[in-house]
Amino acid sequence: MTAGFLEDMTALLGSGGVLTGGDVAMRSADPFRVVPVVADAILRPRDTGEVSAILAAAARHGVVIVTHGGRTGVSGGVDSRAGEVVVSLERMNRIVEVDLVGRTIIAEAGVTIEALHAAAEASGLYYPVDLGARGSATVGGTIATNAGGNRTLRWGMTRDRVLGLEAVLPDGTVVSSLNRLVKNNTGYDLKQLFIGAEGTLGIVTQAVFRVVPKPISHEVAMVAVPDNAAMLRLLDAMQHLVSLSAFELIYPEFYESVTQPEVQPRPLPLGAHGYVLVEAMGYDAASDRAQFEAILERMLEEGVASDAVIAQSEAQRAALWKVRESVDVAVKAIFPLAMFDVSLGVADIDLYVRTVRERLEAAFPAAKMIVQGHVGDNNIHLGITVGPDTPAHEHAVDAIVYEALVPFGGSMSAEHGIGTLKNEWLRVSRNPAEIALMRAIKQTLDPANRLNPRVLF
Ligand SMILES: Cc1cc2nc3c(=O)[nH]c(=O)nc-3n(C[C@H](O)[C@H](O)[C@H](O)COP(=O)(O)OP(=O)(O)OC[C@H]3O[C@@H](n4cnc5c(N)ncnc54)[C@H](O)[C@@H]3O)c2cc1C
To answer: Which of 205, 325, 424, 427 is deepest in the core (most CB within 10 A)?
Structure first.
């Protein structure tokens, strides 16, 4: 069915622009395990014009398109099938413009977040969205999933950093909406159609980001807390720091599994209720450090913190962050697992985690759960295994995790999106009228359902 289409694509993109066979299967659709990509081809456009030509031709031939960024998404959003074609933005990896005065950067969709950071820092600027997958996650993928990450507490999610973008609709129409202005109330904010839409309404090809001056101070500490009330008091105290940039909670099972002697040093001994990574980034090195230390000292004196270590060098800051970001290590320890990314009021998180743990253990004696997350912005990640990875087990675990959220008014996806793995549970967080409106938007822009067809719904 795609043969004629692929002939057209080879003529358009050249042989290096069309991958087939083993070159497709050697890529994984999952960041934590090897799940070979299944598709008739991977197309690698070099510019927006080529993306437009691909989608126009796909519309003529009735070909289904699945878009790939860095393939670090954890909700199955890049899942494709035989008979479908992948469009990867990997060759659209240019930084288009850095505006020092307006403090904006325009980047193509295939630029990695690490490369965006480097481009900003080379000009004394800072792009504050940061996540463990920064080396592979892309501009397009983070926009499509509205990625949050480590510093949402201070600078917001991807949505808060995007001033404008360019996208190609399923029929090949290019919508160039590269706004650079903070204030621009001229009708519908069209960029929002594509931010967090998980590639269901169009392919993002470039974006204008709002950046900030590069901070000159950077403090990181790991703090042990004796109980949940102490964790909440620590959060409240740290939020008095205008320079607070991260507040990340690690539960003991995760902490213990990623700080084994053969893996990496353990900054603080075991035995605490939880371990909090706190970070501050500011613009006055001397007073930032003094304020950071003063709050931590007070927390130790008051017994809110049972122990703490403050990094004294860049290497130590990186080592503390590595404990928090060793998700791959923790995941290996309890594989096979299901990952969850939920959001609820910070005061409710502990009770929610205990509720899920109790229900899991009652249903599955072999259940194990690791917990960590961006608690400063109400977001917790659960990694759960209950034994063999069967559809029945998956469904039962999903039901426990999501149904326990309902009384708390929580969201079943804080930042990872719905993808193809969680669509059955969208109803937990969205009411029928919201889902109907979302479907109507999809129907308007992609009536034949040819773009990421199994994502979201
Ligand atoms: C170790 C690790 C840590 C992580 N930490 C975080 C975290 O802290 N916060 C967080 O939010 N996420 C996190 N993630 C999840 C993941 O990195 C994000 O979802 C990221 O935004 C995905 O970007 P990507 O380029 O890899 O997109 P992909 O995985 O390639 O794609 C994700 C979705 O976006 C669509 N898409 C990709 N590019 C485009 C485009 N140009 N136009 C339209 N649609 C597109 C795809 O079709 C898919 O539906 C983490 C993942 C890993 C592996």
So the answer is: 205
